[in-house]
Amino acid sequence: MFKLFKKLGKKQLIYALICVAFISLNVYLELKIPDYMSKITVLVQTEGSKMADILKEGGYMLLCALGSLVASFVVGYFASIVASYFGKITRKNIFEKVGNFGTEEIKQFSTSSLITRTTNDVNQVQMLIAMGLQAMVKAPIMATWAIIKISGKNSAWSIATAIGVVILLITISIIMTLVFPKFKIVQKLTDNLNRITRENLTGIRVIRAFNAESYQQKKFESANEELKNLQLFNQRTMGFLSPVMSLVSSGLSLSIYFIGATLINEANMMDKLSLFGDMVVFSSYAMQVIMSFMMLIMIFIMFPRASISARRILEVLETEEKIKDGDLIEGKEKGTVEFKNVSFKYPDAEEYILENISFKANKGETIAFIGSTGSGKSTLINLIPRFYDVTEGEVLVDGINVKDYKIESLNNIIGYIPQKAVMFSGTVSENVSYGEKSGCKPTKKKIKEAIEIAEGKEFVEKMEGTYDAQIARGGTNISGGQKQRLAIARAIARDPEIYIFDDSFSALDYKTDFILRKNLKQYTKDATNLIVAQRIGTIKEADKIYVLDNGKVVGAGTHKDLLKTCDIYKEIALSQLGEEEI
Predict the structure, then answer these.
(1) Which residue, 217, 363, 496, 574, could crosslink 415 as a Cys pair with Cβ 3.0–4.6 Å?
(2) Residue 379 to residues 146, 222, 400, 545, Cα–Cα distance (Å)
(3) CA–CA gap between residue 411 and residue 409 (Å, rounded)
(4) 254: which residues sit within 8 A by CB, 6+ positions away?
(5) DSSP H or E run through 337
(6) Which residues partner with 360 through β-bridges?
């Protein structure tokens, strides 16, 4: 947890030190009160005491109480600032870290878990700082100071206080041993509940279409019940602390006064007054010791879960990124992509997904990849923007190994259209102009041009607000084909050297597909186009087509060449077009 505190800035550390200073002042003033109480007790019992002296000591006592109150307010104010800043910077660090993760690191954590770690886990630690900073510092100081004050007063009273403290420590140790391991499970169950809720919201249409509401409800109730039962166990176990604290507190007070009454009864008249004053002071300080432990109890209740949350946050922040940034910002050539004996297998996998792939795409060429599902087409194309790094061989862009590029510079060269079109909440224009290239965003004119080329002008101008029409998160208020056209427009608006279309035309009807590819051919004639497709019609005009099967290139050539030389390609063509159409 202390590793997380290192993330605080100098200003916040100063605030934390101010908290410590005022906590020490608060403790000092609170521990002075019993001293004045003892003096007032003696003055009241002493014949000939003046009211002015009693009022004087009472005034000091009141000033200490008032000073303690002010110090508590100051501590609370600065502790809240430190906690809020901690929450802000930790969430920022997690967000930035996850944003820099490669696909391999993302798969180590589920989406629901990352959301929980960014929100719930950060809140747990933030709450500990806000509520616990005062208690964590105050309790040890107060307990130590109070013990020093009462040490040597009376051995019987000291033994009674020690027994009370030992009972508390044993109780806390037993409860912590039982509860601490459970909090890790609680966070995992929270992840699971988050996952089921997200699944339910994402797949609401499918759930309704298949009348699976009761199934999803049972699934949620099962996860919810499991979390509830574990939380009940934790809370019930923690519930034992309160009665034990009350028992020890009341028992200690009773013991001190019982021992004091016995000692006063046996003492002579001269010592009775002194013993009475010592008993009052000792009782006050003993209660301060117990109060210190009561404050620590609050920390012990919050600490286990906050500690688990801190570990989960650090798991994300300390995950090493496999995709390292290079140094180069530009290549030797323009618009070229080359694979040199590339083989690839996923981390921890035994079998290769791609084996010995070699090809070169030159500026202005259109290179296509086709094959059955699972043949490795998307995996091959995803090696270019470095979603993964190759296991063997090299991937070159503009004559430079992609590993040597700064990732930002590599992304500026490439216009990537993923298999699943991703839309963000915002307007049509904001989605098309998403991101920056060399610190610049596309102009409004460029956005409209890109949408027109992507065959999106007609449906966009029919939307309410046209180019400023709102797109829901995930693009749920537009069709799959419309999302694909906006995703293509997003890439066009960047004017990249290399376009990567990862099955980006699958949701389009044949007419729109044909017109869009015609527009692209004209607009991107000076750029390199790499297309992954399932349809023969989408790629038959490509300069070169590579046929993949089980991660290997089994055919390469034009559409006409492959119909003669590659049986797999011919089978795909026959299944889609028929012999006469071919």
Answers:
(1) 496
(2) 68, 37, 20, 17
(3) 5
(4) none
(5) strand 337-344
(6) 338
CA 557 to chain centre: 47
Q: Give the residue from 102, 318, 303, 115 showing the smallest Cα distance to 198.
A: 115
Residues 276 and 47: their CA atoms lie apart, in Å, by 16
Other CB atoms within 10 Å distance of the CB of residue 550: 15
Tell me which residue of 351, 399, 401 sits closest to 376, measured CA to CA.
Answer: 351
Secondary structure of the chain: what % helix, strand, coil (to 5)?
A: 65, 10, 25
Question: Is 36 within 8 Å of 60 (Cβ atoms)?
Answer: yes
Give dist(CA 447, CA 301) in Å, integer.
Answer: 55
Q: Which residues pair with 547 in a beta bridge?
A: 370, 555
Q: Could you read off the pLDDT of 41-71 as tens digits, one per residue?
A: 767 666 667 777 778 878 888 888 888 888 8
Partnered with residue 386 across adjacent β-strands are none
**For the residues of 188-203, what is the DSSP string, one character each?**
HHHHHHHHHHHHHHHT
Neighbouring residues of 377: CB distance < 8 A, sequence distance ≥ 6: 369, 370, 371, 503, 532, 548
Task: Kindly list the distances between the CA atom of residue 278 and the CA atoms of 44, 51, 230, 263, 272, in Å, as whole numbers in the listed order.
Answer: 14, 22, 48, 11, 10
The two three-digit tokens of residue 375, written as one number: 């043949």
Task: State the burial class of residue 52 (Cβ atoms within 10 Å of its Cβ: 0-12, 13-18, 19+).
Answer: exposed
The closest of 278, 295, 294 to 149, measured between CA atoms, is 278
Contact 327, 400 (CB under 8 A): no
How far the first Cα of the chain sits from its last, in Å, is 66
Q: Taking a C-beta distance cutoff of 8 angstroms, is the pair 460, 428 a contact?
A: yes
Mind listing the pLDDT tens digit for each residue in 245-268?
A: 778 878 888 887 787 777 777 766
Contact 370, 394 (CB under 8 A): no
> Which residue bears the tokens 């180590």?
108
Contact 161, 286 (CB under 8 A): yes
pTM for the structure as a whole: 0.69
Strand-pair partners of 400: 397
Strands 337-344 and 552-557, sheet pairing: unpaired
Helix (H, G, I), strand (E, B) or coil at 551: coil
The helix/strand/coil state of 342 is strand
Spatial distance between the Cα atoms of 373 and 551, rounded to a whole number of angstroms = 11
Q: What letter represents residue 292's amino acid?
A: S
Beta strands 392-397 and 470-471 are unpaired
Q: How far apart are CA 110 and CA 125, in angstroms?
A: 21
* Integer-rounded Cα radius of gyration of the chain: 36
Number of H helices, E strands in the chain: 21, 12
d(CA 386, CA 376): 15
Tell me what percent of the residues of the chain surpass a pLDDT of 70: 92
Largest CA distance in the chain: 125
Strand partners, 328: 405
